[in-house]
């Protein structure tokens, strides 16, 4: 996760790596978070190739089996292997989270920087838009957006991006406002940079570290949000393996004792959210100059 | 080396005060645990402070002067620890005292004045309540008498209308007034020792004089001991009995104030003294005697006999400022409240504040002009307008015969004149983009306006500029945080001269630098001016520094020009009373 400083010189990169090592040794939890993140990435990339069963193949003879050596996480009501389904679902859940976070970073981040940098009317308009979004209960708003736009994965991505918009605007706005009159911004003006160029090439790279932290923290939230929408039947449709749907499907069986159907996708969800939250904390430690003693 | 001086000094002291010193520090070594291992910030420091004595600790950044005093108060950062040595404060072992005893001691027996008075005060509580807290904390007053006592203290620190100011918030008071409140806080419990850590950095010279005079008077009448930590030898000379010079965590010299200036023993002390701007010298005099002794990175500039010599022949007007005005709307509530406090009823037409009030001046080609004044006098507003970063309310700015004030500031970035007016900023750290390498920072103007688009030509030009400002080539790929203050200043200067501008505005370019670095940078600026034939508009609060670099000086006060003339004439025979006051307020070593 040295993306924050990927544009820097090798010397800077090496220094960042050294600093990352220092932070991890100082706080082993961050190291664990990076390990968890790696597991998620591997599952998302290689999921369909490493699972033992076809996640969609039903086998009624083997329905509702408890976890065993053959089916690690047991099987569901149609006899599908839950382990395979949980692993394969990683790609879809991660993709929804990554795309929605990328979208909201592009829209909310730029809007926030412009708001803080230009001030005045730009600030007022963008500020009121994000206030309006924040006035709604966010999950209900996401439900409404998906219901109105249509029941597709794309719309889940858009809805998740929209409800996170104000968060990005606020962080980017305050960070940009601090730097608006900084010496190096004035210097960039003197060397003939236009305002938009200063915004994109001077301000944006400087607030990237804090935005990275924000992105990591909202990743977990985006995963939870996507799963939540699927859980109530919006967005992803069965039989597609997706953690939220799987929890929803398994919920009915908990009372009759088949706990594993809902538990394992739920644990996967928890694992992913936990991972991104820890990662966010760790990234904050890495980019926070206060800790660079 | 310091041992010899020390022993003599202690012998002298113990004979003076038979009751024993108030504070005695023996072989103090302080270490900081960092990720790159242990760093010794202060090593084997010895100091003795008698009752009623004022000790000045002088040194440049990183010399350990602040760490020493923090250790005495035991308010070190948690990474720091006392590795060796003892601290005895009126018979008590401070180094090993429990925290509860120290808490009682701090504020009551020893107190501290910090560098930034505004940061030291709680912004959301009235100053009266804050002083009251200290009195109540140390049982110097009870709820009934506290207000009366606070007002009494405010009177002692010469705050006018203390009854009204009791209810004032820090933001309603000026910097000097805030520092008086901080002094009031420090003196509230009549401590025996006061540590003042750069108490006047960031204050104007006249305010500095008022504050220091006040501190001296108050401590003298109470028989208090004071430790004054400063980077300014002149200030230490003017207000201290004994001066201790520190370098890199070690004490290099301790001597009575008058002796250390008359007869400095250590080469570092001599170097510091040379680098301190003072009347009657030239720029060259600021540099160390033997440049080989210090790592001189640039060739020594040609010696100049006098600051005026070079500027004299130039006659062509480069910059002409006529009847320049900048008005700002006054902020409603706070200022109305303040003027209410001050008892002045502001007439309704005074809702507009004139930061720059109808000023006119000219800068000739190849000339350097100093714009001097205290904070709020409008000098920075003027330079920012000349820089075309903000629009003037009225008036005309002509540059090389063209009226550049007609072009709106926001469009000036693309104006052909942009490259001919450049600027060196006050804070070298803050003015460099932390994500650009030195090379990228210097290349920026060349890329934007120099018609270059990377490649060997650009690299060659950047290398040439770096060579001109004496920045070693191997530092070009470093980021600002990997450079020292002086190196960052060089990067800023290289960036400003990259496009061969005709006019460079220097906005206190050395204010954030140590004196020895300031000496080198000022000489570099002078040398570059000679070489490239630029004009300088030097904005500063320090008349001595301006006098060294500039041919002419303009003194500003409250948006107006009060005096204008040749540097030597203004410094030696000021006509205006305000200029005289400014010059008199600058403390300087008795040489």
pLDDT averaged residue by residue of chain A:
83
Quaternary arrangement of the chains shown?
heterodimer
What's the overall geometry of chain B? globular
Number of domains of chain B: 2
Most strands sheet of chain A:
none
Task: Give the overall form of chain A.
Answer: globular
SSE inventory with pairings:
The complex is a heterodimer of chains A (293) and B (591).
Chain A: H1 10-26, H2 28-50, H3 82-118, H4 120-134, H5 138-149, H6 153-179, H7 183-190, H8 195-231, H9 243-254, H10 260-287
Helix pairs in contact in A: 1-2, 2-3, 2-10, 3-4, 3-6, 3-8, 3-10, 4-6, 5-6, 6-8, 7-8, 8-9, 8-10, 9-10
Chain B: H1 2-16, E1 23-34, E2 37-49, E3 54-58, H2 65-73, E4 80-89, E5 92-93, H3 99-108, E6 110-113, H4 117-120, H5 127-137, H6 146-156, H7 162-165, H8 175-187, E7 193-197, H9 205-222, E8 225-230, H10 233-239, E9 242-247, E10 250-256, H11 257-262, H12 267-275, E11 317-329, H13 332-341, E12 352-364, E13 368-372, H14 379-386, E14 394-399, E15 402-403, E16 421-424, H15 438-449, H16 456-468, H17 485-497, E17 503-507, H18 515-532, E18 535-540, H19 543-549, E19 552-557, E20 560-566, H20 567-572, H21 577-585
Helix pairs in contact in B: 5-6, 8-9, 9-21, 12-18, 15-16, 15-17, 16-17, 17-18
Written account of the structure:
The complex is a heterodimer of chains A (293) and B (591). In chain A, 74% of the residues lie in helices and 0% in strands. Chain A is mostly helical. In chain A, 47% of the residues are buried. With 591 residues, chain B is an alpha/beta fold. Chain B has two domains: 52-65 and 99-275, Rossmann fold (3-Layer(aba) Sandwich), CATH 3.40.50.300; 316-585, P-loop containing nucleotide triphosphate hydrolases (Rossmann fold), CATH 3.40.50. Chain B has 21 helices and 20 strands. Chains A and B meet through helix 1, helix 7 and helix 8 of A and helix 15 of B.
């Amino acid at each position: 996760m040295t993306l924050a400083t990927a544009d820097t010189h090798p010397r800077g990169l090496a220094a960042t790596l050294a600093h990352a090592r220092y932070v991890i040794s100082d706080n082993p939890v961050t190291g664990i978070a990076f390990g968890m993140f790696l597991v998620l990435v591997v599952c998302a990339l290689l999921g369909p190739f490493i699972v033992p069963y076809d996640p969609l193949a039903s086998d009624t003879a083997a329905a509702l089996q408890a976890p065993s050596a053959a089916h690690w996480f047991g099987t569901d009501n149609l006899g599908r292997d839950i382990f395979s389904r949980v692993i394969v679902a990683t790609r879809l859940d991660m993709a929804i989270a990554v795309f929605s976070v990328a979208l909201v970073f592009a829209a909310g981040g730029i809007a926030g920087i412009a708001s803080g940098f230009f001030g005045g009317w730009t600030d007022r308009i963008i500020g009121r838009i994000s206030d309006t979004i924040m006035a709604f209960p966010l999950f209900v708003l996401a439900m409404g957006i998906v219901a109105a736009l249509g029941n597709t994965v794309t719309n889940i991505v858009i809805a998740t991006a929209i409800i996170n918009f104000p968060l990005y605007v606020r962080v980017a706005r305050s960070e940009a406002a601090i730097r608006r009159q900084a010496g190096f911004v004035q210097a960039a003006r003197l060397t003939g940079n236009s305002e938009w160029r200063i915004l994109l090439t001077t301000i944006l790279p400087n607030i990237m570290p804090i935005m990275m932290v924000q992105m990591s923290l909202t990743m977990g939230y985006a995963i939870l949000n996507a799963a939540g929408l699927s859980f109530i039947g919006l967005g992803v449709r069965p039989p597609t393996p997706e953690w939220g749907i799987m929890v929803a499907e398994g919920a009915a069986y908990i009372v009759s004792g088949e706990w594993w159907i809902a538990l394992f996708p739920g644990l996967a969800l928890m694992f992913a959210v936990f991972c991104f939250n820890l990662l966010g904390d760790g990234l904050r430690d890495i980019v926070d100059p206060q800790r660079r003693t | 080396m310091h041992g010899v001086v020390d022993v003599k000094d202690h012998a002298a002291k113990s004979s003076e005060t038979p009751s024993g010193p108030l504070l005695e520090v023996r072989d103090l070594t302080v270490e900081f645990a960092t990720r790159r291992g242990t760093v010794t910030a202060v090593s084997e420091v010895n100091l003795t402070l008698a009752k009623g004595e004022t000790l000045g600790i002088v040194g440049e950044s990183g010399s350990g002067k602040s760490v020493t005093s923090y250790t005495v108060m035991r308010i070190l950062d948690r990474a720091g620890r006392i590795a060796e040595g003892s601290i005895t404060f009126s018979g008590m072992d401070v180094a090993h005292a429990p925290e509860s005893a120290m808490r009682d001691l701090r504020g009551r027996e020893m107190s501290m004045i910090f560098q930034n008075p505004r940061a030291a005060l709680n912004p959301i509580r009235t100053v009266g309540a804050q002083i009251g807290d200290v009195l109540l904390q140390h049982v110097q007053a009870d709820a009934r008498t506290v207000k009366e006592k606070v007002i009494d203290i405010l009177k002692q620190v010469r705050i006018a209308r203390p009854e009204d100011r009791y209810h004032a918030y820090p933001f309603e008071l000026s910097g000097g007034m805030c520092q008086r409140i901080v002094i009031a806080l420090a003196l509230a419990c009549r401590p025996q020792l006061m540590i003042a850590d750069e108490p006047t950095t960031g204050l104007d010279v006249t305010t500095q004089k008022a504050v220091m005079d006040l501190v001296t008077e108050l401590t003298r009448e109470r028989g208090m001991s004071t430790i004054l930590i400063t980077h300014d030898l002149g200030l230490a000379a003017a207000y201290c009995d004994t001066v201790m010079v520190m370098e890199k965590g070690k004490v290099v010299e301790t001597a009575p104030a008058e002796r250390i200036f008359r007869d400095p023993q250590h080469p570092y002390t001599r170097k510091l003294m040379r680098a301190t701007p003072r009347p009657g010298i030239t720029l060259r005099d600021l540099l160390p005697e033997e440049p080989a002794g210090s790592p001189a990175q640039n060739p020594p500039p040609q010696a100049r006999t006098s600051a005026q010599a070079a500027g004299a022949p130039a006659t062509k007007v480069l910059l002409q400022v006529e009847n320049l005005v900048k008005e700002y709307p006054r902020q409603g509530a706070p200022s109305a409240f303040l003027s209410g406090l001050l008892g002045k009823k502001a007439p309704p037409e005074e809702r507009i504040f004139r930061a720059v009030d109808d000023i006119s001046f000219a800068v000739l080609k190849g000339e350097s002009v100093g714009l001097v004044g205290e904070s709020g006098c409008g000098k920075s507003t003027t330079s920012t307008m000349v820089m075309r970063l903000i629009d003037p309310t009225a008036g005309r700015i002509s540059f090389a015969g063209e009226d550049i004030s007609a072009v709106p500031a926001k469009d000036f970035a693309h104006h052909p004149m942009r490259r001919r007016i450049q600027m060196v900023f006050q804070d070298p750290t803050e003015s460099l983009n932390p994500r650009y390498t030195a090379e990228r920072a210097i290349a920026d103007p060349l890329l934007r306006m120099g018609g270059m688009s990377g490649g060997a030509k650009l690299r060659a030009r950047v290398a040439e500029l770096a060579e001109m400002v004496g920045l070693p080539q191997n530092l070009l790929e470093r980021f600002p945080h990997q450079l020292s203050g002086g190196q960052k200043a060089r990067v800023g200067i290289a960036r400003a001269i990259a496009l061969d501008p005709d006019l460079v505005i220097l906005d206190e370019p050395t204010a954030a630098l140590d004196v020895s670095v300031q000496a080198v940078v000022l000489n570099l600026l002078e040398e570059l001016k000679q070489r490239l034939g630029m004009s300088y508009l030097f904005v500063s609060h320090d008349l001595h520094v301006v006098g060294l670099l500039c041919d002419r000086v303009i003194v500003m006060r409250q948006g107006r020009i009060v005096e204008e003339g040749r540097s030597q004439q203004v410094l030696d025979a000021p006509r205006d009373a305000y200029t005289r006051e400014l010059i008199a307020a600058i403390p300087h070593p008795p040489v």
